Fold this sequence. Notes:
Layout: H1 2-11, H2 17-27, H3 34-43, H4 46-61, E1 64-68, E2 70-73, E3 78-79, E4 90-91, H5 103-112, E5 120-123, H6 133-146, E6 151-154, H7 157-167, H8 171-181, H9 196-202, H10 209-221, E7 226-232, H11 238-255, E8 258-265, H12 281-294, E9 300-301, H13 305-308, H14 310-316, E10 323-326, H15 349-358, E11 362-366, E12 372-375, H16 382-392
Parallel strand pairs: 1-10, 1-11, 2-5, 3-4, 5-6, 7-8, 8-9
Antiparallel strand pairs: 11-12
Helix pairs in contact: 1-2, 1-4, 3-11, 3-12, 4-12, 5-6, 6-8, 7-8, 7-10, 8-10, 10-11
Amino acid sequence: MENLATQSIINNIILSPKLLSISNKVLNGERISEEEGIALYYEADLGLVGSLANFIRNKKHGDNTYFNRNFHIEPTNICVFDCKFCAYSRLLKHKEEGWEYSMQDMLNIVESYKDKPVTEVHIVGGVHPKMGIHFFGELIQKVKAIRPDIHVKAFTAVELEYMCRKAKMSYTEGLAYLKDCGQNSLPGGGAEIFDEGIRNQICEDKCTSAQWLEIHEEAHKLGMPSNATMLYGHIEKYEHRIDHMSRLRNLQDKTGGFNTFIPLKFRNGDNQMSDIPEVSIIEDLRTYAIARIFLDNFDHVKAYWPMIGRETAQLSLNFGVNDIDGTIDDTTKIYSMAGAEEQTPTMSTYQLVKLIKGAGRKPLERDTVYNIIQDYTDVVFEEEALEKARLYN
């Protein structure tokens, strides 16, 4: 029925032979090429890519929409690298403008969640020369001592490349060491755009595209899943976005180790690229939709709600997205410092469930690797009951 409904929508749109061919491939579950992905960006309107992406999303997940209960630890924003788009980090020579948590500071954060129903701690930050792989290995061990059950998702490939290089370890050795300490998975940050020419303009001094991909491949070989991201909406072209996704798709074919893909919107607040205007919500939705169409071997596409705001995240659930991240609980500064929509990024479980239900979808709490913890479809929250009582009194 879903196929017929989508086919009916497509039949009512006047399409070029190229777009009609692409649409039929998608409806038949066939992989589209890089050339066809680029054509969708340049030639297809939002209605078409949205319909195709929603078809794939519903075929894979129905109305199921995922979130988790998590918090972040950001050890420092002092960083040896100078990414032009970053408003978060402070160079070592300006360290007085940044922060640097001690081991105990970070453990105090974990202690504050000791009796709360969170399932994941997300540890990322700047690349600080004094915070090496053994420092973070000890941190993970102590986190696990406090919360043995918690999933530790930690360190971008940028952080890992630097840690391993400083410790004179191979990527496999460094990742194996961290895994032995209790690390469970990797986030997807630091990917930015894989095109080397663009990368040289916006983040030339940090790990290369090849290194990012190699680190994630080695993690997958060790049984550590990871996420993947793409920074879009700055100086890149549509060809660069498709090239980026193609490299991810190729690695996923090889390892199957990616959990989800997360497009990250470039925000121009307080950074060295502030002269570049931000793209529109329509472009956000097009990028989510085309990612869902192109990345046929990724089970999940996530909208990071603090970055794009709650309303756009809710809209994205009809453009291929089936995950909106987690509660976060106001523990991240990475995007709020760059002028993201959410300056105080925290949502209660009730608010997340309400947002998902408002899009006509089914809210499911998951763990980091998408095991379902609870179905909230029929759960009535105290806040919801109070709201209804106020309406009827």
